[in-house]
Predict the structure.
Amino acid sequence: MDSFSYRTGVLFAEDVDVHSIAEQVGTPVYIYSRATCLDHLSKIQQAYGELDTTICYSIKACGNIHILRFLAEAGSGFDIVSGGELFRARQAGADVSKIVYAGTGKTDAEIIEALDAGIGYFNIESEAELENLIRLAQQQGKSAKAALRVNPDIDPGTHRHITTGIKETKFGVDIERAQRVFAQYAGNDSVDLCAVHVHLGSGGKTIDPYVQAVRKILLLIDTLRRQGHRIEALDLGGGYGADYESDTVPSASDYASGIIPLLKNKKLTLILEPGKSIIANAGILLTRILYTKTGGSKKFVIVDAGMNDLIRPALYDAFHFLWPARAINAFVPPSRKKELSMEGTEIVDIVGPICEGADFFARDRSLPPMHRGDLLAIFTAGAYGFTMASNYNARPLPAEVLVDGDTFTVIRRRQSYEDLIALEV
Ligand SMILES: *Cc1c(COP(=O)(O)O)cnc(C)c1O
């Protein structure tokens, strides 16, 4: 579900006309729907209700503390990948015992911060990291729980940059190696290695890779238990589909229906780390058309957002549905389908203002005729949108706005030119 819909041809975020946001806050602007985030979270909570489940929203998808705060209030824990994200989670009032910390390159300072905070699990990616964690925990007189990130060697069939569960990646250790790691390190006084973590990477289109991964990992857990190790939790990571281009990605209950039967009576706490399945559809990037121009046989629509604001198309070839915020009635899209050509539309490239060929949002897309000053909504931009934005070309970062019913709040103001140089002391 999402709460961005057209009412008599005008795009609303919940009950707010997006034009009023553009007028007051300017463009480009990220707009999030609170109800959509909470709806996605509660659907996951409900889907896994019969298991002992901790949901740890993945902060790297979208980390604004105001969003983290209401997710925490609704019972979410957090998946972090850095000291900065730990700081964000704590600022947002997170329950630190529901924080899991992944990442191949945790620094000593970050590990000590997480030990001090008393997070739930360190998700360990290598023996060297585990040894370092043990050393630091002993040095600090702290104890911690750890999950070993295991590589199930399953390819969810997505883009090579976002596939993380196959053998040739920098993440985790092979299943064969996992037994040796447990044999060597489980039973340590400072660090209790008592869980297994797996994260397949993002965007799988079916539940099969997850079911396969759970099967493989359960075999490992059975073996480990037979060898006398206490395993209390299975962290299944994130990567659950979000609806970018159609209605075809599995829902939370689809995943749950494949996963729950395997985990029943296994006496395991299930940890999930959803990022984009919570926030992707809960956000749009609203941008204004600056110019249109024709070059050769192509027509270009140049907008005031650039790849520095939303890099997914440039980085991953990601598809984002986009559509004018004020559509002539006939042009209100029936659904967000990849190919949508109707009478009266034209084929255009939507590009940004940055001096890079990769600065585009869509190529050869069929859209109603658009003019300077019109607003264009880039949908499903809530995840890996703002968090991957940069100041490239000395462009101030866009504002972020949270809509709740018929009101909206600026939850991060637009950067100023002064902000751009503020740290250059
Ligand atoms: C990025 C990441 C996630 C979240 O992935 P989504 O595709 O946004 O659901 C979860 N866990 C880990 C370890 C990650 O690196």
About this structure: Residues 58, 60-61, 79, 102, 199, 202, 237-240, 273-277, 383 surround pyridoxal-5'-phosphate (CB under 6 Å). The longest strand covers residues 283-295.
